[in-house]
Amino acid sequence: MSVKDWKSKKEIVRLLYNEMSDEQVIVRIYYDQGNFNFTLEGLIDFYKYRWGKPGRPLLKRNNKYIHFFKVLSIELGLDEEVFGNQIVYGDLIDFMRALPVEGLERVRSAINNHEIEDKLIEKCIESELNLITKQFDEPSQNLNLNIEVPKSASWFAIYHKSGEKKKTIEQAFFNNSLDQSAFYQTPESVLRWQQIIEHPLYEGFDACKGTLKKFVKTSHWKSLINSKDFDGCIVLTGGGAPEKDLIITSSIINEITPKKPILHALIDTSSYMLSYSINFIEERINTNLNVLSSYIDFKFLECDIFQLSDLWLKKKGKNYCWFIPGGTLGNLSEKAVFELLASQCNEGDMLVLGIGIVPTSGRAEDIGRLKDQLIEEYKSDEVMDLLKIPIQSLCGVFNQKNNLVENVMKTWKLDVLEDNESSDVKGSLTPVASVELESKERVELFKSTRYDLDELILFAKKYRFEYINNISHGDESYCQVVFKREATR
Ligand SMILES: C[S@@+](CC[C@H](N)C(=O)[O-])C[C@H]1O[C@@H](n2cnc3c(N)ncnc32)[C@H](O)[C@@H]1O
Fold first, then answer.
1. Cβ atoms of residues 54 and 370 within 8 Å
2. Element (DSSP H or E) covering residue 429
3. What is residue 416's three-state secondary structure?
């Protein structure tokens, strides 16, 4: 197998790189590509041994494939969960859709000015891309949903639940442990979170995005969003991951017929994480995804999910798809989350949970390896940076005069607890991070449970969530489990 539509992709690369003046990259891609071995075996090598995961042979960093595809995806501005994936496997139309707007415009003008002669590119530009834009534009006018917004203003408001008071750090601290929500209540937490998800050891974010891309291709999803009672998606603890929101909403725009406005709600306690999502989504709306604003009714609600009572965003008799992506379930009390879901979800609603999973074979050495990996992952500087501010606040709460954050950080410890010790779901593995304050008391900072899939399915069943399927993508320690809310018996 060779790289799909490679000749045309290469032509686009040549066109775009000429403007980017990175000589080295031009040389590699334009002149040197004949030296790359684009065979199936070569590519499997590239993906299989990427980053030298435990138990796998280490891939040398200077490997020509890594360098080639990494540079190529970065330079083209493609949003890829695995560098090179889209470039290799996607066809030309996927490749072109993933280009930044300026890139696509450049290709379009090059075709119009006969700077490049490539029948396939021409066909894609003329037929499919135009068709898509047209499809979106026409009904939006019919529906009269175009809103005029002054250029500098924000398109979206952040809604608050009336009467809800934000937890103070004291209120977020109970049973000697700190509530997750306390971590994201400062402006720089957004940056800290970004640094974590960009860290090579933290693969969860990319795995989640890749899995979502697969999920939106499943028949279960397509049949839900095309059903007459489908009204939208509600993402709990959803701030800070706008790429995922765009995967979901783009799929809705592409898949549903006839087009109708659909809710996409993010609920999160952190206004900073919500603002980050808003800015990211707005930027897309203002450029290539203009159409999103016409069909997707984005709503941003700053609220503790456990304080939700009657969610005004939902309509009676309608169905929703609920998401808790990114493994956040593992940071929370599963019992509390499922009680909340059980109180909110209607019969026929879908639930998509992103979870970390324990090795299915359950062999002692696999679990041991996972423990080592988790300890390594969580002691990164990026995780420490996220923890510093809440620790500082805790020192304030306890009036710890001599407890400089640096001193407290030195007492940082990660235990990996098994089974029910720190989770409501049997067979779990739970890394728990803690620090010691001056009073010598250990304070639990966060937990991040990995689940035994079968046990989680049984647990969900108690709350009338029936297992549909699970989806994974590249990373065997992460998956998305899909459930459907059943009727009362
Ligand atoms: C790990 S981060 C971001 C997760 C992100 N939505 C994703 O999919 O990758 C967890 C998010 O959960 C939010 N959060 C934690 N506890 C919450 C609660 N009780 N109610 C609402 N949001 C909460 C935090 O504010 C933060 O934005």
1. no
2. strand 429-436
3. strand
Pocket test for ligand 1, best of 237, 266, 341, 378 (most atoms within 8 A of CB): 237
202 lines ligand 1 (CB under 6 A): no
CB within 8 A of 98, min separation 6: which ones?
A: 78, 79, 80, 86, 90
Residue 239 CB less than 6 A away from ligand 1: yes
Residue nearest to atom 23 of ligand 1 (CA): 237
Give me 167's structure tokens: 């937890």
Amino acid at 483: F
Q: Which numbered atom of ligand 1 lies nearest the CA of 270?
A: 25
Is 269 a pocket residue for ligand 1 (Cβ < 6 Å)? yes
Q: Which positions ≥6 away from 74 have C-beta within 8 Å?
A: 83
Report how far residue 413's alpha carbon sits from residue 465's, in angstroms, rounded to the nearest whole number. 36
- Name which residue sits closest to atom 6 of ligand 1, judged by CA: 238
Average pLDDT in the chain: 77
- Residue-wise burial string across 334-358, b where 16 or more C-beta atoms lie within 10 A, e elsewhere: beebbebbeebbeebbbbbbbbbbb
Nearest CA to ligand 1 atom 12: 237
- Ligand 1 binding pocket includes 304 (Cβ within 6 Å): yes
The string of pLDDT tens digits covering residues 230-275 is: 999 999 999 999 999 988 998 888 888 877 889 999 999 999 999 9
Mutate to test the pocket of ligand 1, among 159, 195, 215, 268 (most ligand atoms within 8 A of CB): 268
pLDDT above 70 for 24? no
What sign has the CA pseudo-torsion 84, 87, 89, 90?
A: positive
**Residues in Cβ contact with 123 at an 8 Å cutoff, skipping those fewer than 6 apart:** none
**Selected residue with higher pLDDT from 174 and 353:** 353
**The Cα angle at residue 216 between residues 215 and 220, in degrees rounded to 5:** 75
How far is the C-alpha of 310 from the C-alpha of 21, rounded, in Å?
56
Q: Residues 219, 220, 223, CA angle at the centre, nearest 5°?
A: 80
Is the beta carbon of 204 within 6 A of some atom in ligand 1? no
Reference 429, options 354, 353, 372, 352; nearest CA is 372
3-state secondary structure of 332: coil
State the pTM of this model: 0.72
In angstroms, what is the span from residue 5 Cα to ligand 1's centroid? 40
User: Domains in the chain, ordered, with CATH?
Assistant: 6-128 (no CATH), 158-360+452-485 (3.40.50.150)
Q: Which residue is closest in CA terms to ligand 1's atom 15? A: 181
Helices in 61-150 by DSSP H: which ranges?
64-76, 85-89, 92-97, 101-112, 119-123, 130-143
